[in-house]
């Protein structure tokens, strides 16, 4: 987290903090300029968003996380997955691995006709609530699986016959 000190300017009002002061310098919420007084009391805290944008940090302790539902389509079925809008495609693959049984390295995710990298953020690419994403099994890994299931033989070669 990055902290910047802000200059505290308030028009038409002067404030004294600490030390001795009369009760006339205290500001109540109903007085004019109380928003300026509230800003003058504390420092402004900043945060760096995943896209690189520097924004003012929210005051509330509860950060509002926007959840989106994505329809993930495979060859034979589809799944509705709820994730945070600021998730990455790698995090989406982790959730999909629980649902589909495919490991994240075996998955290829396509959005708007392009394969997406694990480090890309959903909201930066343009994934919104109720958008569709295509999930494919990586063909190279699929072929290796089939090859290992065939007992190490090349696909298409006849099995050796056993003569008695």
UniProtKB/TrEMBL annotation:
Domain Ubiquitin-like: 68-136
Name of this chain's protein: Ubiquitin-like domain-containing protein
InterPro entries found in the cross-reference section: Ubiquitin-like_dom, Ubiquitin-like_domsf
Entry-linked Pfam families: ubiquitin (PF00240)
Organism: Turnera subulata
